[in-house]
Please model this.
Amino acid sequence: MKNIIIILVLCLGLGCKNDRQDTLKKDAKTHSEEHKHEKHSGHASANEFMHKSSFDDLIARFESPERDAYQHPYKVLNHLGDIQGQTIMDIGAGSGYFSVKLAKKGAKVIAADVDDRFLEFIQNRIEGNALENIETRKIPYDSPNLEEDEVDLVLVVNTYHHIENRPEYFAQVRKGTKTNGKLVIIDFFKTDTPVGPPSDHKLSMDVVVDELKKAGYSSFDVNVDLLPYQYIITAK
Model:
């Protein structure tokens, strides 16, 4: 009888151990799936938030005097330096807010967006302003659609946090930029601001720099003084 009791205790102990191992495996799998979901939903929720507004409302917001007041586009253009004759891709061009201004300053501009409606709107602006040094380009969500060494500068304004798999994406951007070219990211401080998306949709400067390092960039200039609600990161 004593031997039978010992055997039962050992079996129960082994059973509990196996149950604990199964539980730990399930917990690890659940945590991994939740992390993947969180990574994906950040990008998805940012896009979802933007598209709560109608297309007409987005255009009105992007081209509003209120945006001029905080975006200071001509300060940004001065910050970029002499762009005469440079080829610049404006990723997430939207209404063409910066694309048109860059073209008027003498750059050859590729106004790039994933949305056909924005590209059509920009095309109408091009024709209406008789601009010859600007073109539109449809890009997929996972690629800037750049040829190798195609551009001198890539500008990404208020769009970085909308992009998924950013290290991989910007590795492609880097490949499409000339050796002495640069990438300029302008986005909102990760804090409560009167304009821009909710803070949980924003990305801190440290996160952006870390992701760009993974994409292959090694030189960074960070400006936090030029604009009231946004940082400017120049990467090479």
